[in-house]
Amino acid sequence: MVGLYLFQPWNLWQDETVSEALPAAAPTATPPGSASAAPAPSASPQTLAEGSFISHEHDTKGTAKVVRLTDGSHLLRLEGLDTSNGPDLRVWLTDAPVKEGVAGWRVFDDGTYVSLGKLKGNKGDQNYEIPAEVNVADYSSVTIWCDRFDVSFGAAELAST
Predict the structure, then answer these.
(1) Which pLDDT tens digit goes with each residue over 33-89?
(2) End-to-end CA distance of the chain
(3) Can you give the residue ranges of the DM13 domain (predicted)?
(4) Which domains, from first to last, does the chain contain?
């Protein structure tokens, strides 16, 4: 019975699909006749870095993007994610290199990482707010991390765009 609780094998066959849109650009209005010394913020979100997922413990596909929103905040966007469901899955930004095969399964908790929260669903498009105090330039990868078993389901190396 304890083994069933720990492994929760029923999660492997239960898909949870998320369909979040990228937050829309907020309208910026400048009063007529006013001049601003500061440059105008970007009119649309900008992708700063992105990468494609590779599989580790479980087959994982999709794209991870670090996006700067029009208000200057950042989020991690997962697009077309397709992985297995599992117990206690988290989304982490890390400074670890993405390695193929078994060599890459357990490297992500060796260095610096920040948890962006529980994985919202094992399929689809989803957004994760990156806290304002996090310097996104310090992180080079994303992992779908199983906290219960300390293993990566899949990871993406982030490259500047």
Answers:
(1) 544 444 455 689 999 999 999 999 999 999 999 999 999 999 999 999 999 999 899
(2) 48
(3) 46-159
(4) 51-161 (2.60.40)
